[in-house]
Amino acid sequence: MPNLKDPTLLREECWLGRGWEGAQETLTVTDPADGRVIARVPKMGAAETSDAIAAAAEAFPDWAARPAKERSAILRRWFELMLEHADDLAALMTAEQGKPLAEARGEAVYAASFAEWFAEEAKRIYGETIPSPSRTSRLLVIRQPIGVTAAITPWNFPAAMITRKAAPALAAGCTMIVKPAEQTPLTALALARLAEMAGIPHGVFQVITGDAREIGGVLTESDVVRKLSFTGSTEVGRILMEQSAPTIKKLSLELGGNAPFIVFDDADLDAAVEGAVVSKYRNAGQTCVCANRLYVQAGVYDAFAAKLAERVGQMKVGRGDAPGVTIGPLIDADAMSKVEAHVADAVEKGAQVLLGGKRSQVGPVFYEPTILTGVTQAMRVAREETFGPVAPLFRFETEDEVIAMANDTEFGLAAYFYTENARRVWRVTEALEYGMVGHNTGLISNEVAPFGGVKQSGLGREGSRHGIEEYLELKYLCSAIG
Ligand code: ADP
């Protein structure tokens, strides 16, 4: 385990309504880089989940009734504590998730930004007055918190995927139960410890670790839980949506992506290479907004491939806590199998390996940063999210052709394109069937902009002024005065 400046951030108990609680059975948390056990967290199930729901329901009326300014001040404190403890949060993330320390620290700051932003938004949950169609009535709309909410979060951003949900929920006056990914519970529990230090009342924010299906089953079945926010695979999103149907739960789903990254002939190639590196290789390619398919126009294809290979060839694979490392381990052996299968399929169907294309000597879950050329739409890399450090380069001739290829997927999360032609910017942006588009950048996520996808990439938006709406209901008042 890493040495923490504040050792109280390493928790092996859940943060529930009554405080910290353990369980007889535990789940082991391992360092993906070497498989070593670093901690054990409680394996909780249905009974504890029901208790957490009851505690969240009990805490809700008081939390919702507090003036927004008061909730805002507490969230602001949470934000400040995350920044103060950014090094510890980073150390925990690198230990259980594997990402390079500098990236982990970046995530800690990014995670904190949601608490800051929604602490500010808490004070701006305005209502409306509507001019009445009659002389004898007055019409008003107020916004109220939806009630008890739940979040199920993934391992690739162990901190930010929690604060992006919990901060708007708490700002709105909701209470929230978080079930983090089994691979990365320590970051979630550290955030709970910081929530405790910030003075977030018992029951308002809880973190429960354990059996995903059992906990998810109880959370979705409950009529008390009025909203579920999920980030993860489309497959599990579908299951949770189905399970939420009987109680007509409000849902936010942030699911898989298959991001196209388009480089036109008129692009600034050096900028495009930098953007591709950031978008493709961050977190070893394990983000849902990672460039999954790189479409390069014929006129610059060879030049782009050469420049990208030169740049990517300088990346360093290794443990996330080793100096200078830019590519950490994959999360587990299954992730490795998928990456290997995608590369093997592409090569079998005619792609060439320009760089990498194999496991790294560093260890069994480390994959070399890879570039494939001569890739076609018939290969698995074109259809499925690889979730690894593999950049497949597709060649295209015309704008219409590349738009059709980019949109030929059931996903619609993020897309990127590089061009210096201003006329093309609007044309391409409007034609791409994606929730988020990056022009001349490979990095689009921040707390002030709406994050989310279309098609089977999900429902709803997180971050921005829209993110808080997911946790609010409108109530219309018709007051007869005649
Ligand atoms: P990934 O493939 O990135 O691990 P998953 O969708 O499997 O994505 O996991 C995302 C989150 O969903 C994790 O917290 C995981 O524990 C949880 N999860 C997985 N399966 C279920 C399920 N059947 N019910 C509830 N939660 C689930």
From TrEMBL:
Pfam families xref list: Aldedh
Keywords tagged on the record: Oxidation, Oxidoreductase, Plasmid
Annotated ranges, domain Aldehyde dehydrogenase: 22-476
Gene Ontology CC terms, in alphabetical order: cytosol
Classification via CDD domains: ALDH_F5_SSADH_GabD
Source organism superkingdom: Bacteria
Enzyme class: oxidoreductase
Enzyme nomenclature, EC number: 1.2.1.-
One of the GO BP terms on file: gamma-aminobutyric acid catabolic process
GO molecular function, one term: succinate-semialdehyde dehydrogenase (NAD+) activity
Catalytic residue list: E254
Similarity-based family: Belongs to the aldehyde dehydrogenase family.
Name by which UniProt lists this protein: Succinate-semialdehyde dehydrogenase
Organism: Falsirhodobacter algicola
Lineage: Bacteria, Pseudomonadati, Pseudomonadota, Alphaproteobacteria, Rhodobacterales
